[in-house]
Structures are given as structure tokens and as C-alpha cells.
Amino acid sequence: MDEKEIIKIHNVTKRFGGLVALDKVTFNIYKGEILGIIGPNGAGKTTLFNCITGVYRPDDGKIFFNGLDITGKPPHRITQLGIVKTHQIVKPFNEFTVLENAMIGALFGRRAGKISKDEAREIALKNLELVGLIEKKDELASGLTLHEKKFLELARALSAEPEVILLDEALAGLNPKEVEESLDIVRMINKELGKTIVMVEHVMHAVMNVANRIVVLHFGKLLAEGSPKEVAEMPEVITAYLGDKDLALKFVKR
To answer: What residues contact 84, with CB distance under 8 A and at least 6 apart?
Structure first.
């Protein structure tokens, strides 16, 4: 992991009417790390992802990517700059094949308008191979299982050639074997491809074992940040979210 910040989130606030979903949230994301973002439902985790990717414009604060102010830039522009997000509820183009879905990432990613369909196809095939879906490349996306659709989301995101991948509850709904397979792919993407990964996740044993660092949100505020072990031992985090220190520490790799 490089200690150079790749994303800087500074005093980001987002309101929905009288609800403050994010309240002056400030922290950095470092190049090459796997960062886990945890917290109770309604803590502001997905809202933060949506602010980073341009779905929402923060009411206050700034977001920087590689030193560039990206606050409020439209989603397609942020994708082209090098940040992509997978969806909490998988959203494949069901009427398209698995290969065509992955090609969309390449055609509308960092080289949008500058890449041929043949080049996009080669990139998509490489990433389908990486996530284990190459044998299903000609099948309609609608026929995939939930696990496979999550892998397709990842292949489509990778095909956009990002620097940073935001995974929004990528492990939700998976069985233990599928969770382990997913974590292996996340680790490989981080270590071998050098991608910075940020995970919003409720599967605690998984995120605590794969992340280098954890950020905790609570009622829209930054509650804590540190290594998985440090966070698991913080009284305020135990009270707000984890519930029991001994149980929390069992999540953390030794």
C-alpha cells in the first residue's frame, strides 16, 4: 500500500430534507489499500459512495481524486477519470450477453470514445476470465445466479480500467463458499492488478479479514478509523455497532 492519498474526502455533508445523511465526514483513501467502510444501516455508507461517484452532489465539503476536485462532477465523468462502483442490488443488462455486459464497462470507461469494439471485447474477455465467467460469455446475463451476477458487476467495473473500485455490499446474499471465492478475487485485484478497493460491507468476518484499514460511520458522522484490530477494540465502535469486544476480535485475522 502506498501512503499517498488517492481520494481525499473533506468535510462532506449531504442532507435529504431534514435528514443529515453525512455530517462533515473527513478521511483519506490511500493508493493501493483495501479500505472497509462499516456501520449500522442508515449510517451514510452508500450515500458517501454516491457522493464520490457523482450520483449525489454534497451540500458542503469537497472530494478530491489524485488532487483534482471532483465534487459534483457527473457520474460518467468520474468513471472516465478512474473511479467505478458496483451496485448493492446487482444491475446487469439482462437482455445482453455476459460478454456484452462486460464490454459496456470498457466502452464507457476511461477510454470512452477512444476504444474500438474489438479492443473492448478483448478487455472484457480478459476480465471475464479473471472472475471465472469466461465459459458463460455468450449466455444472457438474466440467466446468471446472484453470485455470478456479482462477479459480472466486478468484470464490468474492471473493464472500465479504473484506479479505484467501490464495492457496495458485494458479499450480501452469498453463502460462505461464495464469500471466500469473492474475497480471493478482491485480494487478487488489489495485489496483482494494483487497484485501490473500498468496500461497504456488513459481512464482518470478511471485511475485517480482507481490509488493511477500517472506517466506521454512525448517524452520518465519522466515528472511528484504524486497523481492523484497533477498530474492533474501540469502545465507541463496540457500543454503536459491533456489540461485543470478544466477538468483534474473532472477526479479525490473527
So the answer is: 53, 105, 109, 157, 160, 162, 164, 165, 166
* Residue 7 burial class via C-beta count within 10 angstroms: exposed 0-12, middle 13-18, buried 19 and up: buried
Residue pair 9/28 in contact by the 8 Å Cβ criterion: yes
**Arithmetic mean of pLDDT, 68-92:** 94
Handedness of CA 240, 243, 245, 250 (dihedral sign): negative
Q: What is the DSSP letter of 97?
A: B
The CATH classification of domain 5-82+163-251, taken from the options 3.40.50.970, 3.40.50.300, 3.90.950.10, 3.30.300.180: 3.40.50.300
In order of 11, 166, 193, 228, the CA distances from 71 in angstroms are 12, 17, 27, 29
pLDDT band at 254 (very low <50, low <70, confident <90, very high): very low
- Summarised one tens digit per residue, pLDDT across range 137-192 is 999 999 999 999 999 999 999 999 999 999 999 998 899 999 999 999 999 999 99
Q: Where are the domains of the chain?
A: 5-82+163-251, 93-159
Output the CA–CA distances (angstroms, integers) from residue 169 to 81, 98, 102, 106, 249, in the order listed: 23, 21, 20, 23, 21
Q: What CA–CA distance (Å, rounded) separates 56 from 53?
A: 8
Grid coordinates standing for 220? 452520518
The CA distances from residue 18 to 21, 25, 222, in Å, are: 9, 18, 19
3-class SS at 108?
coil
Q: Each residue of 11-62: pLDDT tens digit?
A: 999 999 999 999 999 999 999 999 999 998 889 999 999 999 999 999 999 9
